[in-house]
Description:
The protein is mainly beta. About 5% of the residues lie in helices and about 40% in strands. The protein folds into five domains: about 1-100, Immunoglobulin-like (Sandwich), CATH 2.60.40; about 110-250, Immunoglobulin-like (Sandwich); about 255-460, Collagenase (Catalytic Domain); about 480-575, no CATH class; about 585-675, Immunoglobulins (Immunoglobulin-like, Sandwich). It has six helices and 47 strands. A hairpin with a 2-residue loop joins strand 4 and strand 5. The longest helix is centred in the middle third of the chain and has 14 residues, at about 315-330. The chain is globular.
Amino acid sequence: MEFRRKAVQFESLSGSGPRVQSFTEVFPRNVRQGTAGLAGYSIGFGDRNDRDFGELQIEVNSNINSTAVEVDVTFGLRDWSGEWDDEYFGLIEVLVLAELDAAEVSPIREDLQVTGMEITQATQFFRSENHLDSENVRPDNSIPLVADKTTGVRVYVDYDVASGLPPITDLSGELEVITPTETVLITPTATISPQRDSAIDRGQHSHTLNFIVAESYCRGAIQFRCRVFDASDATQVSAFVSQNVRFYDMAPVNLFVVGVNYTGQGLNLPAPTLADFLPDLWFTEQTFPIPGVVVTGYTTIDNFSEDMNASTPCAKGFTELNKLIRDLKGDSKDIYYGVLPDGDEDEDQIDFGSYSGCASNSVASGPIAAPIITAHEIGHRLGRSHVPCDFPSRCDAPGNPDENYPSYGNYPSDSIGEFGYDTVDNQVLSPAERFDFMGYSRKNRWISPYTYSGLMQQTDSTAGGSAATTQQRGSWNPTKTNILFLDLVIDRQRRVTRRTSFHYPAFDYNYKGKATAFSVEFLDECRNVLACFTLHEEIQCGCHHCWPRNFTPELPMPPNARWLLVWEDEELLYEECLPHPPSVAIDCNFDQRRQLFEINWTATHIDESIAEKRDDFWYLTQWQDVDGTWRGWMPRTQERRTFISTRLFGKRRTMKVRVLASSGVATGVNECLLHLPTPVPATVSIVLTSDSGRVDNPDNPVPLTNGIVRVHAFDDAGRSVSNPGFVWFNEAGQQIGRGHRFDLKQVQAN
């Protein structure tokens, strides 16, 4: 029994009904028995307003015609009036079942044999004994596969041209993707010239028959079943070869995007928009062991003017920017990523010097239109260190290379080690010429099995649930604790400057660089030690011989801590008595004319000894997202008023905001509940991107070629719409694909 699932789209229309759409489902053999039925539907009126329901009509009729099942879908929707005067639309899902005639057995060509299937999503071990030293050899297809991620299947074929059978000069084939609910037949990306298996060069994509399996079929346990045949005579066929595979659920990388308005270096560049940044996520989504990147929100930082010219990693400009971004992070587990703008002309470009990106503890930042830098900095945020480099003319040597990075045989030190595979361009990436993106090679970047496996161990525990539901795996269940977001500077003379810091409940960030000789102690009122923490370098930095040293650790702070001490080994460098948290008063009102909430606040010291100091507070304002996450509305300020937009509400009528006041370390807090007088109409923005840029950019659209298109949907706050269930249709309204991505080559093939 064959199963096919289709979706039929009825565009919004009024004035007639019911309407009928038809499609034909073709099978490889005559249909003996067949039928079609309703599998689900999503309907509504054109204005999307609530109204009294009248009559819904859905009919699915089918007819068998040789090798095809012809299906008619009837759909109509009316309100209580019974008239066709209202616009209505619908998406009707249909399940087609067909029992086919028994297949005629073609003679199997004994000179044609499938010898293996390499199943890869970015990198994979396959026949690694042929090119790697014994220490790095792994079993075939031993890198786990990720659910909902596009998958490439490279089929290796042995052809004996000396067999005496009619010669085959052009080889094709078919791949059956057998899921629990359906069987899908996939054709290869191109035909190939067959040869002996021993002559196959794995680095040549044209030496294997390659198939691309869409993300929507890559779930759970499925089976790949493949055979190959003469492209000019499909009866000249090999035997079937099957392989069972399993796709594992991994959480996406949850990314909150912060656009930066840059006013340094004599420039005034507007913050990049979320839509303009989305193409930069292509490389991350292609190479990381994740189903995708979920954007959990978007905001901006205005008037950032630090000089970004850097001769060392994480120099002052990026360090100060990342501190502001950390102010916006709140208690979120998401990766907060700052995006610096790009000017229109050469003279309007930011001069970054030698380094154009930086990850600092739980946040990262980099320039727009730099997808590999974006992936590199996100990699740091997920605990990945630099890959070593021993070839100065090609790459810069990082100051803190990963000492555990494998030496892949005779390949360069930062080689990807195994053959990579680009499922977008059907391109094979050689380890002799491609280098891990966590290194400093200036071109030809991809991902190694080492980095891929390392990210796979981290992504599901760090990509916290915000806009999308994520799965926590394993026994570790992170919970919020009182975290001090400390900001310390230690100069060469060991003078310690503690900048204003805040503490509040948040998740502990557990990726650290190398340990230093410095440590922080918390003492109680009687100077008993409550907790002690070693200070670590930033993962990216590698600047342990450079001064001053900047530390921005996120430390669990005991609630009864009254002293903060900084040590270098056994030498006390700094101590500070911590007062009681200040008292915070907050007042929230809705400005009807401006459609904004006005938030005012004041703070006062509780300790009488410092009560006369009334203007030394710094403040953070935070709002609570739909899932309970507290996010920063703007970076720290000494102002006592702000205005909060209604776009943050989403579909809610109420939302909490809070103000945190710090006198240095001790932090007080107060909150209020905002009530939206009338609901704000929810809107969803759609953006189409390809690996070349934004397809739907009104100013500079990227032309559609035969690549893959990615659709993004997000709300007014920049949150990705959860599980939108994208379905792709052609001009006739027929379904041609499902999922976030669509391969345009499928249109050409049809």
